[in-house]
Write the structure tokens for this entry.
Amino acid sequence: MKASEKLIIAKELLELNFSNKISQISIDLTYKQLHIVLIDGIHLYIVYNDHGEYSYSIIFSKLDLDRCRFDNYDDHWKVSSRPHHFHPRKIISIHVLNTIHSYQSGMQNIHWRLMYL
């Protein structure tokens, strides 16, 4: 499935299930990015490409590292779940990944549902 198709499906699913939480939603098919602004000001970004890579980002505020990301873009990280990995909020070190494995597994389940629709 092409990245643009995945984004359209993700947008439809988010609108269907979370319309009361979404303030704004936009899709950019050129950059293959879905941008969601929640009513509490949190920004969500979903990015796909046509090579099976993805990124889900949650930006809580404009403060440094006040974000979380789950992706498979960075192939050089040495984590057990490679290439899938989680970038925790307010933490720069990749070594914390081992302590959040259960959260990562949950995020992977969400990812697989979107990837294989």
In short: Residues 42 and 60 are 5 Å apart (CA to CA). The first strand starts at residue 22 and ends at 28.
